[in-house]
Known about the structure:
The chain is of the alpha/beta class. 52% of the residues lie in helices and 15% in strands. It is built from seven helices and five strands. It has helices at 3-18, 23-42, 45-50, 54-67, 108-121, 136-142, 152-161, and strands at residues 71-74, 85-88, 94-100, 125-130, 147-150. The protein has a five-stranded mixed sheet, with helices on both faces. Strand 3 (94-100), helix 5 and strand 4 form a beta-alpha-beta unit. Helix 1 packs antiparallel against helix 2 (23-42) and helix 5 packs parallel to helix 6.
Amino acid sequence: MNVKGMGLSLILGLVLWWMDAPVWAIVTVIILGLVWLIWRKRLSTIDRIDRMDGREFELFLEDVFHALGYKVTVTPASRDFGADLLLETPDGWSIAVQAKRYEKVVGLEAVQQVAAAVPYYGVDEGWVVTNSSYTESAYELAAPNQVRLIARSELEQLLKEAGFKR
């Protein structure tokens, strides 16, 4: 719950008060709102990522890479030709990023997608970023194609460097 959700809890409490609801009901609604707010605030960034859908993850990575100093371009949600984000460093190095918010292990298909995106977008290298891990075949294909695989632990490190909570 965000501050907007907490406001909803307070509004509901006021409505109950206006309708002459018992004090215990009003207090309960407000306390539940506060508990929900505290619980949501305590979630680590990686826990929040685990609850995102794919597009939310892509847009979240836009913020992360921007915070890390990259110029970021988000590609269209469909027909992205294997790259969800295009990054550029201050010195002009360019990177195509394939974002995979998965509950399972990421396979070589993601590596194939970003490897195809590199020449299509005319960038210098490709990355696959996931909140999960990779199969051995993904690592095997990534090495000769100069594709960097960023798994959960390295993503957590990037989040820390970018100033995100845990």
